[in-house]
Amino acid sequence: MAKQQTSDIDVWLERETDHVRKALENASRYFDGNDNLTVNTLEAVYARESSFGLPKKMGERGFAKPAGHFHLSPETARRYGLTVTKNNDQRFDIDYASSASARYLKDLHTFFSKDTVLVGNTKTIGIKNPLERKKFVLGAFNAGEGSIANAQRLAQRAGKNPQLWSDVEKYLTDETRQYILKVLPYEDEFGLKSPANKNLKEKNPRKEYRCTDGHWVTIDDRPVFICD
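Structure (tokenized):
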């Protein structure tokens, strides 16, 4: 009898300790019945970003670029209340990093559920189809919501459908296009194989925190959204 081939998902699940699984499950409580995000979404993003916390994939503490378990940028990490310094970089703490990433994903889902003004003249175009919307949400996690919103406008000006990822992705980098092609199949396979509780969000929703409730300030001549 032929030996069953081991997939990347199998390897990552072997690396998923009880602590990591619990952190991802707890973070998934920021999702709710209004989205199609689950703990498997977090697992898929985590796998793509750092191969489930592989040290050589996470970068350096205090790094001025994306780093840590979910490769959050310093700006995004601070926006969700994380400390980012050389001596204390919470992007490298799975509990803090998964919580911030789940909140960011949930907010991105809100941004692309309806036309949303992000900053200045940058505005998303709401995606009606939930499956299409998830592509935009994941694309924004990789490239930033502003980049995706700008790509939507470029597609619209070219006579394309700004609500279809296949039309909008043409105006994005190959990295972002490949990100979607990887993460969505990962999510499906995690859904089949992972023991993590994907229904936890329905049992214990966290309604007390949404970063969509906040305000913009200017820091170092750059607009930064601060969660209230």
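The two ends are 59 Å apart (CA to CA). Residues 174-193 form the longest helix (20 residues).
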